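Chain particulars:
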Amino acid sequence: MNNKKIYAAFTAALMTVSIGLAGFTACGPDHECVYTYKTKVPATCMSAGVEEGVCGICNESYNREIPVDENAHGYGEWNIVKPTESAEGTATAVCKYNQTHIHTVSLPKLTEEGTGYTSSEITLSPTALKAGERTFVLEDAIGDIMFKIPVPAHGVQTVADAVEVGVAGAEQVRYSYGKSSSNRLNSAISEFYYEFGENYTHLIDSADKYESWYSYDEKGQLFGIRREGISYNFENGKPGQVVTTGGKPKQDPLPNAGYMKGERVVLYYSSSVSLSYYGAEECLDELYKWMLASTNGDAYEEIVKDGNETVYKFGFGSYNSPYFCELKVEFTLTETNALKHLLVESYDYDNTWSKKFEQDPETKYYHVIDGAEVSGIELIEFTNTTEAELSPEEAAEKPVNPYPATALQLKSLDVIESSTGNVVDDNSVITVNADVMKDFRFANIENIGPDINDIEYDPITVYLRTETRDIELDYYIGANKVLGYCNTSTTMQIRSRLAGDLTFVLKSKSGSFEKEFKLHVNPIAPSKITPSYHKYGNTGYTWQQTSSDSITATVYVNQPVPFKADVSNDELSYVSTGFEAQITSSNSANAKLTWASEAHDVMEFRASAVGSYTIRLMSSLNRARTCTITVKVVAPPPMGSLFGNTTYTGNLRYPSRGPVTVTCNAVAETITIERNGGVALGGETEILHIDSYNPSTGELVTSHYAGAELGFKVIVNEAYDLVLSHPTGFGANQEEIILIKK
């Protein structure tokens, strides 16, 4: 009894749910429609929607209205007025259906803790120079409100900040002067000077007797002019007049982009290690990284105020067996945040004789107690000056780059054919034999700058111009089979194993100069030619070749025989492949020769009657070089031979991957195709009738005869193979099966 009550209650509940999901209405004499509804157009705050009901019994449908929903707004992006520490902000969103419907949220005042917000996090940390960002998020029913507030740069507060600012201020440096000395192994003193100007860097190094000016051209390429054979006169610790003792300025063959950052500085470390840096800024940055990586526990930092300036110090010990190195670094920042002074001291000790070190509590450096010091002090000292610190008189004395970027660019030159002395212009076509070196020289060289006319400043490269690109050439014949290079500043050589009309172009390094000229390269006649022809096989045809000067081919009447001549000398492309051919047999009237390609490198033979034909091939450049092809032409197979009682069984790949059986009957003139599509499709049969067959041309005409039309076709190809084809089901693609192979 209890079970029945439960069942009745469940049934009643189920009916209640069903009534809630569907509506009942009269549908017809045999049933009452039960509709299920789906929203077609949702209701908004301004307009009613539409829902469609579909009867699950008879599929009848009708639409009914959904009432206006006053809460169905379509709010757009937030328009935010950011709050401050003293005032609240607002975030408003406007409904796209009615612009009078506006959703407004009050944004709490800003606090460090982010009170009143869902989250408040620094998403971009500030540095000494760059501001950061704090992101505030406030959740809301229509979407999160998010905005960012700048976090100001905190300025220089630590030694790390001072390093960051000093390194970033490199662009402010007008010039930097310093000197380094070392008595580690040999006494060495280097005084150096570098200066940043507009689009150039000027470098002087007394130790290397080196001076250079580095410039960028308008395309951003780096050029360096090196002055050689010079001496220096340093006055009062700074470079004075540079005296040229001989030679004109020359271009640095491999200018280093690092020099644009400042003069090279070498820091000797642990006897055998020598590290190079570009400028005081990079040296300081690298030394501070060393300190951070120090594992000795003795690193320290110190900030000392000195009037209007601040001196920053740090030091550390570094162990590199068998040596122990102590480094002290001091530097000063100017009011414009540029390095004014950098001092580096290093003390190296040999750790071979001692394992005991003691830390000095005042300097916080390790010192050797029982050990031998093997090197003295090495000093690297910089004093930088910024534009802001220069007086008007000093600023007026700022040197002018004597070698601006434009002076380094090639403007023009003449190419002279060495053997004739003729100028090579745009209309010149110079003839040369393949694989022969052709010499040229340059004259009337002119640079864009007014005082320098030397090709070494903007060296040129030789290119082979093709339809798709310019190929840079080298001083040896490689894969391009063409040599082209400037072996000195005034001469050029070309050597080609490519025959024909070739176009070369000269380009300067800066890209400011380009000159095109042409060579006609005569090919080399072959010492031997051998024949080859298309041999027909089961998969079409391949080239049949031989090493002898004759070859024999057997083909059917009217079957084309494409052939060519293969040249000797390893078939290099500068050997002429051109050839002529003629039929020498008595029945030549029944055959003809035609060129099978526009390039005239493949010829085609075709005979209309059976017989033996001899084709003689001759080199176009040396008619004494010959070879022969003997073609035996036989009658094509008749219908009885091609179709007589032949059966093929194999598998199709598409569309059902089933087996297929093909039976040819020459007497009945029928081709029966049986295909088994498997359990799902069963077996199907199509019979084709052979309407006509022309053995001389291989033309076969068939038509559907009986059974299902499966789309099969049968043809005879050029090799007189019987080929079955059918559609794969993938577009116009066809699958082919060779039934009878001849």
Observations:
- Residues 39 and 433 are 84 Å apart (CA to CA).
